[in-house]
Structures are given as C-alpha cells and as structure tokens.
Specification:
With about 350 residues, the protein is of the alpha+beta class. It has 11 helices and 16 strands. It folds into 2 domains: about 150 residues, Phosphorylase Kinase, domain 1 (2-Layer Sandwich); about 190 residues, no CATH class. A hairpin with a 2-residue loop joins β12 and β13. The termini are far apart.
Length: about 350
C-alpha cells in the first residue's frame, strides 16, 4: 500500500546567482561538481527524494508542525521542493521545503557523496548534536536526522532562513551573496565589523577551556559563516562544525592563548569573492574579532580558573610570545594556508599587541 507521503508531488530546483533553475531531465546523467565518485544529479535528487519519503519524513512533518503551530498530517502536505544549493569539497547541500495550506517549513540537508565526505558528515553529526545541546547560546544548527545510505549520506538540520554567505570582494570591502534578495550586496563597514565580531564570539563560546577542544577546521571561503540583515540589525550564524577537538597545544593557558591567536588570524583569511585569490582582511576585522572573543571568554567561569585576570594576561603577551605559539604547532605549520598567513603574521602581531595594550 502506498503511503500519502509517497504520493507527494516533488519539485527539484538548482540554485544559481541568477535565480532558481528548474531541474531538467538532461541533467540526470551529469556528475555533481567536484564529486570524485561521479555521482550524478539524477542520483542526487532521487536520493534526497527517497530520504524525504523514508528516514527524514518524520523530521520534515515535525518541522511543518512547528511552523504551523499545530500538527500537520501527511495528507495536508501539498508539495516538497528540493533545491540543490551549492557544491563543496565535502558536501552538496540542499534545502528541503515542505509546503502545506497556509504555510511552509524549510530544513537543510548536507549531502555527502564521497569517502571523505561520508567521514566528515559522521563527525559533523556528532559535533552538532553535542554543541547544540551543550552550548545552545552559540546558535549552531540542530541535527534532526542522519541517514547513511549506499552512495549518499544525508544529515538533516535546521535551516537558517534569510541567512547568506559573505566574502571579501575583489573591489574591496565585504559583500553578501543574497541571491534571494537581488544578488550580491555590499555590507557597510559597521555591519561588516559586527558580522566578524559575532563570528569570533560564536567560536569562543564553543571553546572547552579545560581540554582546549574547539571547532576546527573552519573557513570563511567555505561559507561556514552566514549573516542575516534587516532593519533591526545583523545576525551571524555558524552553519557547520566539521570537527571538534584540542589543538596540539592542548588546554589550559597555552591552549587558550593559541586559540585566541589562531582565531584572530584565520578570521582575517578569505578568498576574494569566495573562490578567488587568498585575501587578508584589514585591521578592523582583527579589532572586531578581539572584541567578540573577549565578550564571550569574559563570561566563562573556566577562564578565571586558568588565568585569573585574562585581559591583563593578554596584555603581557609580546609579539614574540605569540609567534612561538605558532612555530611549535605542527598542525598550523602543515596547513595549506599557513605560508600565506605567515606572510602577514608580523603585521598581525603588532596590531594585536597594540589592540590588547589599549
């Protein structure tokens, strides 16, 4: 017997800078961009459809119920809209929209289609499940369903409606990729600073001081952070957490200082327009990152245990002291971005010392 959900009409779309494109039958045999196993668009959309009708069905209907403020039965759902959002090195994320009379609910689906992606998605499920419970104030997406299939693994998560990637622009400044609201839009200096302040604050909230466990890796160029703008201001969210563990320096004071330094350094790293040459953001980004981390770390009781006067301790760290934290970190030295960051390290440390000395 066919269930009501199995008979639902499903629409497939592909997001683009010029608007959503309908999924055309001739795409069925085209491999997903960057997929080493050559998984096709046809297999991708069929896998997502089967997931929605099977393992993910309950979570989708629960999301519809939350949006409606009442239970939504399968017979009330009029359509599912599955949209391929982008293609990354590890995942091929999609949005899944559940439509019903009077409303709709949208969730996100991270789709892994390669061995590296499968391993990363399993780690991400574990990390998001932990941090969304232990650090709810960080606002990470809550995992709702995880399914390991034959060729596609899918992690269903909360969808941050109205949030978009932001990147350093080739012509200078910061831009938001708001393809729903008209395309690429500039982010003014004040709001740009607030975006990076909140990003650093989120990472600091998720730091486990005793062990040194932190969210890592993360990158602006990968679109890990997104922003939503409206009349009331700006909000930043972190939409992924591919790993969580201590650096080579562990926890305690050295681990905390290492986290502080690497976060300020990588916060300034992006690729022009998200995909171009590496870019190192100006000093305003560093000032915003320092403010965001001090705001979060100042509220952590564990900080006082390891460093009774954290702000004063930071002021005592010289540029040479900061540099030694990196040169003893084998993970940093082997990072593909390390040579570029080392070119900017001396200036960064002078600026950091100046900001912390004020």
């Amino acid at each position: 017997m066919t269930s009501p959900a199995a008979a639902l009409p499903v629409t497939f779309l592909v997001a683009s800078p010029h608007g959503d494109l309908p999924y055309a039958p001739e795409l069925a045999g085209v491999p997903l961009e960057g997929c080493p196993l050559q998984t096709t668009y046809g297999e991708y959309f069929a896998g997502l459809r089967d997931f929605c009708m099977g393992p993910g069905q309950a979570a989708l209907f629960e999301a519809a119920g939350r949006a409606a403020g009442r239970p939504v039965a399968a017979t009330e759902v009029t359509e599912l809209v599955i949209k391929a959002q982008k293609h990354g090195a590890l995942y091929h994320p999609a949005s899944i929209e559940v439509r019903f009379p009077g409303g709709q609910a949208t969730l996100g689906a991270n789709v892994a289609a390669s061995p590296h992606g499968w391993a990363a998605l399993a780690r991400e499920h574990t990390v998001l499940d932990r941090l969304s419970r232990e650090v709810p104030e960080a606002g990470l997406p809550r995992p709702l369903c995880f399914d390991e299939g034959d060729r596609l693994d899918i992690l269903l998560v909360e969808w941050f409606a109205g949030f978009h990637e932001f990147h350093a622009a080739t012509g200078g400044g910061i831009v938001v990729w708001d393809f729903e609201g008209g395309g690429i839009a500039p982010l003014g200096p004040e709001r740009a600073g607030e975006a990076y302040r909140q990003a650093a604050r989120i990472l600091a909230l998720c730091l486990e001081v005793e062990s040194g466990a932190r969210i890592w890796p993360w990158r602006h160029a990968a679109g890990d952070f997104v922003v939503r703008r409206d009349e009331s201001g700006l909000e930043t969210r972190l939409i992924t957490a591919r790993g969580y563990g201590p650096s080579a320096l562990g926890g305690g004071e050295r681990g905390l200082l290492h986290f502080f330094l690497t976060t300020t350094l990588f916060m300034r790293l992006d690729r022009l327009d998200g995909v171009g040459a590496r870019a190192f953001l100006p000093g305003w980004c560093l000032a915003a990152a320092v403010e965001g981390m001090l705001d979060a770390l100042g509220q952590r009781p564990g900080i006082q245990k390891h460093i009774p006067d954290f702000a004063a301790a930071l002021r005592r760290v010289t540029p040479d002291d900061w540099r030694s934290l990196l040169t003893t970190d084998a993970d940093f030295c082997s990072d593909p971005d390390a040579p570029f960051l080392m070119e900017h390290l001396s200036g960064h440390l002078v600026e950091l010392f100046d900001i912390l000395s004020r």
